[in-house]
Amino acid sequence: MAILNVQNVTKTYDSGFQALKGVSLDIEEGEILALLGPNGAGKTTLISTICGITSMSDGAITVGGHDIQSDYRAARSLIGLVPQEISLEPFETVENTVRFSRGLFGKSPNPELIDQILDQLSLLDKKKSRIMTLSGGMKRRVLIAKALSHEPRVLFLDEPTAGVDVELRKDMWETVAQLKADGVTIILTTHYIEEAEAIADRIGVINQGQILLVEDKDKLMQRLGEKQLIVELAEPAAVIPPALKKYNLSLNDAGTQLTYSYDTKGERTGITTLLNDLQAAGLSMSDLNTQQSSLEDIFVGMVKETV
Amino acid sequence: MNLQAVKAIYIYEMSRFFRTLMQSFISPVISTSLYFVVFGTAIASRIQEVEGVSYGAFIVPGLIMLSVMTQATSNASFGIYFPKFIGTIYELLSAPISFFEVVLGYVGAAATKAFIIGAIILATAFLFVDLEIQYPLAMLAFLVMTCLSFSLLGFIIGIWAQNFEQLQLIPLIVITPLVFLGGSFYSVSMLPPIWQTITLFNPVVYLISGFRWSFFGHADVSLGMSLGAIGVFTLACMGIIWWIFKTGYRIRQ
């Protein structure tokens, strides 16, 4: 059974802007889902709606089987949220702000657990420090500590690595991997496709308030992945022979490299006939290699299609 | 009932008060001392007694009310406005807590702070005048009710305000004039008849009158009217807050 079930959720703001247009989504327990989408796609609205920050116009959402409206206490107690903006009280200490979050979720104080979470996030030595004295990366980790303080089963990370340097981003990925190992279900939104590629089990693409697809990451790569066959020519060619026109080849400026794009999901890739035709056209090859299109290419392609 | 959440909000809010302990204490003590110097000494030389009580002692309940009402309002409004301003309101909205629990935590903390300040002003007053409280329990009850009802009002202002100017606006243009014109420093009976009638439309008159009664056993309006006024005011504030949370006014889109 899915730990999170979103059914046909719509959200229209008072201004008339429709941020979500019938979104449906199932999240399985223990998985990491990366939600990709350009600015204004509806990622944050979707998360805010599930967490109770924004009210939905229509539809239904359950978390752990609990309806987020009629059984909001049970539903929300399962959720931890790391918001996109760094929203922290600057004058408060790390320890107090994390303890406050635990209390808000109805959990009795547990200093050992708070220490353990802070330690896991490399914040233990900063627990008595005021938030205002911390670096941006540390503040982001404090937000994660706050979200984890009540031991949620579902964690939402809204662009957790936005504006974070590469090293810290890798640290964050390790933290996410550790949380997954601890059994936490994670839904993260990101602009960084490499991030989704690196840590997600499944990838969802959202644009203009609609989920375009949700698919297993590897299957997605396989299903939509366009590959390129690059043929290195032994002798430079001035033009592409007319007999090879049907393959839509491209020739580099030096005339030494022909690129053929083919679809891996197609029944026939056309490689064999291409190689035969190349030979028939009198072109000799010195090397061959293939390249898979990145998730970024797939994503950009899908978003362009919906615009 | 999520009592842990109420406790967490209460402790968090109180910790802000204790973090700025010196400002919290010194400010009301200095302003009260100044009022005693200006009103209690300068004016008392012209007005010896009001309703059989020395003028210096007569203004004590009004002074306490003045500070308690403004402190309760500003503490509660700031308490809920600040999370809105810095964005931490997301935690309150996504936590498994009801609107009643949120209000209990914030209003409880704001009322406690106002009560402590009221107690400090009362203690300061003893340094300046001879004072005897005839009905101490009633005095405490009036003080607590005023702290709570004005904290509720402050909470509403904090939700309504969209910037710091608006946060200051209501206390400045509504509460302070009403308190000053509500018989803090004079008895309503000292006014010309027409102003006595107009004054009775000021709700603060009933609060100050009841509070003053607990000190000296004399009131401008009947005790029942005072209790009724606090009751109606509190219920009105609670009704507005209930509506705010039901509709998500200025907190949930």
Give a description of the structure.
The complex is a heterodimer of chains A (about 300) and B (about 250). The longest helix of chain A has 16 residues, at about 165-180. In chain A, helix 3 runs parallel beside helix 5 (about 135-150). Chain A is of the alpha/beta class and about 300 residues long. Chain A contains ten helices and 14 strands. Chain A has two domains: about 5-220, 3-Layer(aba) Sandwich (Rossmann fold), CATH 3.40.50; about 225-305, 2-Layer Sandwich (Alpha-Beta Plaits), CATH 3.30.70. The model of chain A has no long low-confidence stretch (mean pLDDT about 90). In chain A, a hairpin with a 2-residue loop joins strand 4 and strand 5 (about 65). The radius of gyration of chain A is 24 Å and the shape is elongated. With about 250 residues, chain B is mainly alpha-helical. Chain B has one domain. Chain B contains ten helices and two strands. Chain B has helices spanning about 5-20, 20-45, 55-85, 90-95, 100-130, 135-160, 165-180, 195-200, 205-215, 225-245; strands spanning about 50, 55. Chain B has a two-stranded antiparallel sheet with strand order 1-2. The model of chain B has no long low-confidence stretch (mean pLDDT about 85). Classes of the chains: A alpha/beta (about 300), B mainly alpha (about 250). The interface of A and B includes residues 83 and 102 of A.
